[in-house]
Amino acid sequence: MRFFVTGEQNRQLLLNSLILMFLGYILLLWISNGLMYFHKMDLTPGSVISYYLGSEQDFTQPKSYQSMLEVSHFHVFSMGLLVLTLTHLMIMTNLSVPIKVWVSSMVYISAIADEAAGWLVRFVHPDFAYFKIGSFLVLEISLMTLIILVTVSLFYARRKM
Fold this sequence. Notes:
Largest sheet: none
Number of strands: 0
Order of helices and strands: HHHHHH
Oligomer: single chain
Radius of gyration: 20 Å
Helix content: over 70%
Structural class: mainly alpha
Strand content: under 5%
């Protein structure tokens, strides 16, 4: 009865709807992130090395410090906000604390690793291409895990009402 008098049932439905729309938007971001990666590279170390170090065969130049810095500047800020938002939403679910800690750790570590990996390939050693591929895959998997966990939790909580 309290929910109807205070109007909380409408706020709850609106909040759930907004979060679901946000998650749909993030799903599109997740898809475009994968498409952008695969437009430039694939899951082979050679393609990653060619992208960052250039290729005489493809007539491409190595990535410049300035271009990498510009990309990193944007990515560090935007990925930080994205990960903070998604993990914050996950914290509000009924998942166990160990799952929340594990998933949050994976997404933060993989986001930082994915950004650092390109720098490592370009300026430290080409063998970091394996690290780049792994960090990209873990980032994509952990972001999708967050999207799924929050979405399922919203539907589960809605059913219990």
